[in-house]
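REQUEST ID: PR-0412
SUBMITTED BY: lab tech R.K.
PRIORITY: routine
TASK: structure prediction, single protein chain
INPUT:
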Amino acid sequence: MATVESNGIRLSYEDTGGDGRPVVLIHGWPLSGLSWSGQVPALTDAGHRVITYDRRGFGASDKPAPDEHGGYDYDTFAADLSGLVESLDLRDAAIVGFSMGGGEVARYLARHDDGRVNAGVFAGAVPPFLLKTEDNPAGGLDEHDVEEMKDGVRSDRTGYLQGFLSTFFSANGDLLVSTERVDHALTLSEPASTEAVVACIDAFSRTDFRADIEAISHPCLVIHGDADAIVPLEVSGQRTADALENSTLVVVENGPHGFNVSHAEEFNKALLDFLDA
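STATUS: complete
OUTPUT:
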């Protein structure tokens, strides 16, 4: 693992190197960049330069207190990503955001477009807006849901995340990966600070990305499982695809939230077809 100074902190990242088109993979909650292990070899074999990194507060990256070089919010996360892209001098890059990572894709493409990134991928992603509000009745979470998640992490972090990650990899009540794979995901969450884990619940639940999505003109892939019990297709991926100016929607049949693991072959094919088009 290497580190890079970005937006006042150190981000831990891995870079396969090479001269191929760069692809930056942005992980979901509550994991780390290592959660992309099923995608890195496929992308590398196809000739891409692949960069994974740990979001601030997670994995081996710095875990600053909020208000110390920014908070755990999407303006800060997108600025972190921008610093990484600039520090590595990436050009003609694509950014791929899984789950809460899709928020970085939306905010970056809408507000940090300097020509370095020319495509985005929303994979089981949280945009356009998860919270149910008066003007967003189609959201997937209400205030009680958000507070219940935060209370679950605070009261029994390991137990709560164990249950969450089982649902993460389940479709229609059936676990589609081994229990060892669930345990591995839990292990990836362990280095994260509890402060970051809790604060990110507010970030991905309460951030309204609708204006960001409407501002994006880059070609985008939206890929989503139709059995996602964490971020349902109808409240997120479908709405994002409908709102984007230039999008391709791929729906993976019986795909749970963690479909980049359970349906890695289909996921990788859709990703490569888009990147190499």
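NOTES: The longest helix spans residues 143-168.
REVIEWED BY: pending
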